[in-house]
């Protein structure tokens, strides 16, 4: 038996966004706005808006990019605390880059032993 959370189509969570109420449409239920610029005022349950002035903590996903010297890198954004709005609106997002050479990239021909050894090295 598989148990999981089912997301209703009328739930919405927004964070770290500049909101345009006309474009983004606010006609759904159970909306939570955390650090959203232009969010509606707190008014739960009618309309059902829970509004936080800042987002207590958020972590953006790392992403792959190519630097000015044509080297692949992974950018890891810093954790944001008590933030509002987008992370990139004031310039580059704070964080650090890691060379792709620091990663083990598995190939279909790699054995599970080879992959497990690489994983074990990463933990030490």
Protein architecture, described:
There is one protein chain. The protein has 124 residues and is α/β, with parallel strands linked by helices. The protein has one domain. The protein contains two helices and eight strands. A three-stranded parallel β-sheet has the order 1-2-3, with no helix packed on it. Strand 5 and strand 6 form a beta hairpin.
Average of the residue pLDDT scores: 81
* Structural class designation: alpha/beta
Strand order of the largest sheet: 1-2-3
The fraction of residues in strands falls at 25-35%
Low-confidence stretches: 1-10
How would a textbook summarize the main sheet? 3 strands, parallel
Number of strands: 8
Shape estimate: elongated
Q: What fraction, in percent, of the residue positions are helical?
A: 10-25%
How many separate structural domains?
1
Helices and strands, in N-to-C order?
A: EHEEEEEEEH
Count, helices: 2
- Tell me the radius of gyration: 20 Å
Distance between the termini: 36 Å
Short description:
The chain is an alpha/beta fold and 124 residues long.
Name the descriptors.
single chain; 124 residues; alpha/beta; 3-stranded parallel beta sheet; 3-stranded antiparallel beta sheet; disordered N terminus
């Amino acid at each position: 038996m598989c148990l999981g959370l089912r997301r209703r189509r009328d739930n919405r969570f927004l964070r770290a966004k500049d909101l345009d109420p006309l474009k983004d449409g606010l006609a759904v239920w159970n909306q939570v706005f955390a650090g959203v610029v232009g969010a509606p005022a707190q008014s739960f349950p009618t309309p059902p808006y829970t509004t936080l002035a800042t987002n207590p903590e958020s972590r953006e996903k790392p992403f792959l990019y190519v630097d000015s010297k044509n080297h692949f890198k992974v950018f890891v954004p810093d954790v944001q605390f008590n933030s509002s709005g987008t992370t990139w609106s004031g310039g580059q997002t704070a964080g650090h880059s890691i060379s792709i050479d620091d990663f083990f990239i598995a190939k279909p021909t790699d054995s599970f032993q080879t992959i497990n050894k690489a994983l074990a090295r990463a933990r030490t």
